[in-house]
UniProtKB/TrEMBL annotation:
Its main location: cytoplasm. This is non-specific serine/threonine protein kinase. The keyword Transmembrane helix does not apply. It comes from the Eukaryota. PANTHER family: PROTEIN KINASE RELATED, SERINE_THREONINE-PROTEIN KINASE 36. It comes from Bodo saltans.
Amino acid sequence: MDTYHVLDLIGEGSFGKVFKARRKGSGHVVAMKFILKKGKNDKELRNLRSEIEILTKLNHENIITLFDAFETQNEFVVVMEYAQGELFEVLEDDKTLPEEEVQKIAKQLVRALYYLHSNRIIHRDMKPQNILIGQNGAVKLCDFGFARAMSCNTMVLTSIKGTPLYMAPELVQEQPYNHTADLWSLGCILYELYYGQPPFYTNNIYTLIQQIVRDPVKFPDPISPNLKAFLKGLLNKKCLGSIELACSVTTAVRRRSKKKNIQQIVRDPVKFPDAISPNLKAFLKGLLNKSASARLNWPAVLQQPFVAEAPEDHRWRVPITQHDAAMKERLELLDCLRTVAPPRLTSGSGPAGRTKEGGMAGGLHALRRSADVMPTSQRQQFEVFSNATAEVLATCTDQVMLTDTLKAVASAADAATATPVQSAIILERLPRIGFLAPLVQRLNSNESPEVIQLVILCLRTKKKMLTDTMLTDTLKAVASAADAATATPVQSAIILERLPRIGFLAPLVQRLNSNESPEVIQLVILCLRTLMQPENGSVLSFPSQRPQREVTSILTQREETRASDIAVRDHIAFELLKKPAEPLQFLCHEATTNESGQGESALKIIVQCCKWNPSFGAAFVQLKEFTSFWAALLEMTADVATVEGRKKVPLATLSLHAAATLLPPLKLNAAHLLDAQRMSGFVSSALAAVCFYRAPTSMIVEVDVSILAHASAAATLIAFVHRDLRDIIAFAPDQGLVDGLLQIAASINACPTRPVVPRAMGSSYGFPEYGLLDGIVQMISIMFTDPESFLFETGASVVQGDKKSAFRLIIDLLRDSDSKSELSPLGLLSALRCVHTVVLRQRERAGSLQCLADTVPPYASDPPGQITVTAVVVRQLRTELLRHLRLWPESRGGGSKGVAAHINVIVQILSLTFLSSPNPATQAEYEKAVHAVQQGMYREGLMDNLIHSLDHTEAGAWGQPFGVVTRLAMGSQHFAKALVEGGGLHPDRMRRILDAKRSSGSLIADGLNVLSQLSRTSKDYYQPIHESNIFEPLLQLLKHTDGGIRAKTCNLIGNLCKHSNFFYDALCQHQLIREVVARCTDEDAATQKFAAFAVGNAAFHSEQLYSHLKGAIPALVLLLGSQDEKTRQNAAGAISNFVRNGNTLCKQLISDGALAAILKVLVNDSFALRKIALITLGSFCAYEECRSVLVQMGVVDTLRKEEATLMKEQDPTVAKYIQRIRQRLGIATA
């Protein structure tokens, strides 16, 4: 902080306040964002560091530059480029822009988004407020608070972030999305720049969502054809590429039948051998498909005439580019850009003891302090000294002494290798004294993290440390240590998290060059492969409803450490991307040619780099060596029907995983390499592996794990191709494909040990990256998304009509969520999405929700009674599963984000029961089925599960599940009671739900609605509501910027006072009454209405709060003239209650004109209001001071004139109210 002089507050971003500042010494003006740590848990802090890290990797003229980032005790501080204004301000000032200016902005934003997407980053919060205008008119994209880097195996995301006005249809529908969501937002922004408002604009969030999903985008004239075509492409509601072009079928299908002994090879894309069955022939012919349009995507966006590069662009682009380059160069010269310094080791300072070890430490301290060349006469002494060092390293048990010795060794090595002479004197003796062996033996899980870090520091493979004689031994030791480090998740976390920080990985990667010996190359690749894709070590079971206790214990321990395995993989990928790119080129060449016999390991390293580093895939597919690499990869297929083919199965399986990993960056950055003819052969081989797979027919025959893994990987690949590459290669799934998928699933479930090992992609540090069932479930789920799929049989019951048992497989997998499941969190999510799709399709096709009521045969362990699909879905919310899923790494589909995605899909399924029948003729039957389904939900404890599911996610993800909680509680007394009994009103939960600063408006509204419903329903809920301690949050909500929230808060306070004066003391103590009185003059009409309702109920039961309520009288008098009848009723009722329990407020009411206003109501308003006026006048007449004033106002004559019209309504209470007034005025009955 001492480096900067903070100037003015210039705004508030998504995470904190932003100040204008000046760097001391240079005078450079910057923007500083201060993000408070208070209120954020460790997970949120790690996420913030991750988001900041995204910015540090970006370097583009149209993206805001991060200069510096650091932490104080209480804050994160991010120092960024200072820009002059927001695009939002331009809109406010100018309303619209001419097309030429829109075009300039569009071209810059397209370049910025293409850069982000090429680095596999989705912005996720594109809006005018996040687009800054810099010098020379430069457009700068900023505020990556919602940005998210995509792993290469997760092209589709599901969590929702962003601004509703600019959100794509798939986002507002809670559907999976990808980078094209940013392109939709871009279209909305450009549309607003040109027309003055977004394509869809309304203050009602629900109406807005419906418009975004259903309404067509209108393009009023005048608008040029190029701009219109560009906006139409961006604002296409169909997000996933589905431009299905016809492609030829070049298939190599090999099948050996034991009965017929037939081996047929098919190579002709048109002719098919007679031996092929009709089903398979039809299936292969289904590769031809018709085309359909979709939202613009890369690289088509860049080719649009409206944003294509034009020669005249250099006039405005060159100044922008030059200014950006000059700024960064100046800052680099001034040393203002962020740099990451390697950690420095500090030595202990205590005096050495008198033991042998103490003497050794003293000697090492002396050596560490000396950087002089050692005289020849001291060589013998140094040799004894080094032998003693080796002995200490091997036998020392004192932690302080051991760490001090290791620090000395590390420093001595650096001092000893300062010059060639010193290196020759010292390093020539190290191999002879057995120095490395005791050092390597210290690499085990029993040592402290500090010891492990120091050992690795001593072993780091900098060239200056290693003589030729030592290099091989050291690499062998490192390879052995790496293998040991990956044995268990906890052990790997302790060791691996330190590798990037101590400079261990960079010199290892630099050894990948043609100048090294074959043995060194082999050992370096072995080390890297072991770190990137460990083959050995334990493999934990996936999250399940019945997790093993020891697995939960390991996950709990691992949660306390950072994701060190990802950090190591990301760091190695980063080192490989550094220029010169010789190590990466070497790996690519080795994977292609297998020249050093390490081709398979090289391929594994590349695949893992693509998976875990956002930028690697984009850079790798653009290497000139990639073309030959990709061609070789597509040839790595195997015929599992031959003995020779079986030997190639592991490599073929690896090639399938590699292709599935590389296809997303390839499609985005080098789509020209996705040749349909070449791809079709590869995909056909994958299809054959699935279609022709057959499970063992006997329990005696053991499942071949390698062939099973190959078939599973093939299913994953074809699922990806069918979903995301239809514009290149399309096929029509048929019954043969379904049969193969079911056979693979049967074999997986028959495996004696699960998780199934060995795994094609290694142990992945104990957390498998995928489940063998994932691809099967994904493919079936995709098939069900097609409304015309043959999987949908006619009739209302999906389960009974499921002749291929595809849907039954999905339900069984969800039921069998035990510790042996081969369904990863992402696979589990696909299974739940499949259920949602099937239920939705059945509702649309048959006008029924019978699918949720369908039953499946119970297991012996199940409780008595039938098991419905609803029960299977609700049980996915059980605490054991969610706890296990939360502890599972977020990078593998777990963590709080994984739990949120899991819960949201279940909520989407359950929410279908809130919809009305699509066919009015069957409404009664439909409602009966819905009632039966909701009864099943209640029996399964849905409310309790939903409430406790919130504990496993961040509050930002509570919106959807708590929305269902609210709907259920407001629609049923049984669910309302279950909400209270299940802990739904726990103070911590309610505090987070009603948090005015952090919670979304919809979540707050649901919380207020359910509290209002409970308090309105029965006074029995008053005590649990009081115990929820919601008073401070309510006070803040009464000041909320959203008028709807203020209105609902007033309504709740009114209901809290409905049945008794139970809450009077608390409302007064927490200043809520004072604030409600102030809301009577609110600018929002609905807030005024409910504020009048609240003050009226606060005065109903006693005069306890009269003195606090009197300030509302002037406002209530004015509200008697409101255009809204309900507001007038509430105001009249409140005034009536102000004299219901005493005359304390009579003088105030008289002086503020309340009596005259009530008389006016009696004469001029509706019957309902006139009736309330009679009640109020009767209350006034109880007090002499009011009676006299009313008489002076002519109340007697007024009453006589209005009586006839009032009595026409034939309401018996009217006569009673009139009689009461007459009695109190002392007037004889007419």
